[in-house]
Design brief:
This protein is mostly helical. Helix content is about 75%, strand content about 0%. It has one domain. Helix 2 runs antiparallel to helix 11 and helix 15 (about 305-315) packs antiparallel against helix 17.
Length: about 350
């Protein structure tokens, strides 16, 4: 009799766990994204459509040259940057804590754990409503990968959030024009899904080992009530990610004078300028859509399309802080490969912009 009762009881408990995990994740995602992303971007799209600008570039401000490297420059940039992203970062931490503590791992692994290319495509599609900058998506990426999503899916989600952001493409259409949108979209797709494919290929050995010992790697059931599990995950993600994030944003803010030159035709419109801007854009960190006023201002000052195109494809997808934050999630060789791929795609974008006369 006891054995007959325990089966339905276990089934009901499992069903309750599924409903709780999915329900809480859905509520946080929909409410949070509506407040932080969907509603503000909807209103902003109308303003950009009429003004054709997103304001001053965060790198230069109102000047034509970045400020000299100093503590003041670091603090100023960090303050303006975090004013723009703190809500999205908080939402990312909330979503990561929910994935880590409440969403059933076995379900997530079944749906997103395959190393097939179709799963990477699903990761890219799931990124579209998120519309986060690269650093704000990191907690969710870490939560997905830790709970059983494949590295291809996680990388596509990581790169897809900033690169394929629908709102940014709309803003770009109203400010830079459709040729720049096409350039960003086509090469962005190459970067997102090429990066996912590359990550899968670079982790073949780990995948074989983990599949052979999957039972041993399965964590023990956490008996704590879900609110305590959720709060513990939130504190752990925040303590893990935020300190290095804050420090690196300040360092890059101070380094603007070394990464970005004074605006003007003297920057050149040639291969060395494209390579330099591609490297700078890959390392630097900006809030969502921050690349648009940078590129628009550069073009207004007579900077060639080559350097502008390189920044268009490198500033948003990733940055040094986002790569460092993922240092305990993805293998180092995957992170290096993603950085090199981003820089390479940026160089191609710059050369195409020059060739097409954008």
């Amino acid at each position: 009799m006891r054995g007959q009762v325990s089966v339905p009881s276990a089934t009901r408990a499992r069903r309750g766990e599924y409903l709780l995990g999915f329900g809480l994740l859905l509520v946080i995602a929909v409410v949070g994204l509506f407040i932080v992303k969907w509603s503000p971007y909807w209103a902003r799209a109308f303003a950009v459509a009429s003004s054709h600008t997103l304001g001053n570039p965060i790198v230069y401000g109102t000047e034509a040259t970045p400020p000299p490297a100093s503590v003041e420059a670091a603090l100023d940039y960090a303050q303006r940057y975090f004013q723009a992203v703190w809500q999205a970062m908080l939402l990312g931490l909330l979503l990561a804590a929910t994935l880590d503590s409440v969403v059933p791992r076995d379900w997530l692994a079944r749906v997103l754990g395959s190393r097939r290319f179709s799963t990477a495509v699903l990761g890219g599609v799931l990124a579209l409503p998120g519309m986060m900058c690269s650093c704000c998506s990191v907690p969710v990426v870490a939560g997905l990968y830790k709970r059983g999503a494949s590295i291809g899916c996680a990388v596509a989600f990581f790169l897809g959030n900033p690169t394929l952001n629908p709102a940014v493409l709309v803003f770009m259409l109203f400010t830079l024009g459709w040729p720049w949108v096409v350039l960003r979209l086509v090469l962005g797709l190459v970067l997102v899904f090429g990066g996912a494919w590359l990550a899968v290929r670079l982790t073949e050995r780990e995948a074989q080992q983990s599949s052979a010992s999957a039972v041993l790697l399965e964590p023990e059931h956490d008996p704590r009530p879900w609110p305590l599990r959720w709060l513990g995950s939130l504190v752990r993600f925040a303590a893990w990610l935020l300190p290095e994030y804050i420090i690196l944003v300040g360092v890059l803010g101070a380094a603007r004078a070394f990464l970005f030159p004074a605006l003007g035709t003297e920057i050149g419109n040639n291969l060395p300028a494209v390579v330099g801007m591609a490297i700078a854009g890959t390392l630097f960190v900006i809030p969502t859509a921050g690349e648009i006023p940078i590129v628009q201002t550069m073009l207004a000052y007579g900077v060639g399309a080559g350097p502008a195109g390189a920044l268009l494809l490198t500033l948003a997808p990733l940055s040094l802080p986002s790569l460092v934050m993922l240092g305990r999630t993805f293998p180092t060789r995957v992170l290096l490969a993603l950085g090199l791929l981003c820089a390479a795609v940026g160089m191609i974008a710059g050369l195409l912009a020059m060739a097409l006369g954008l």
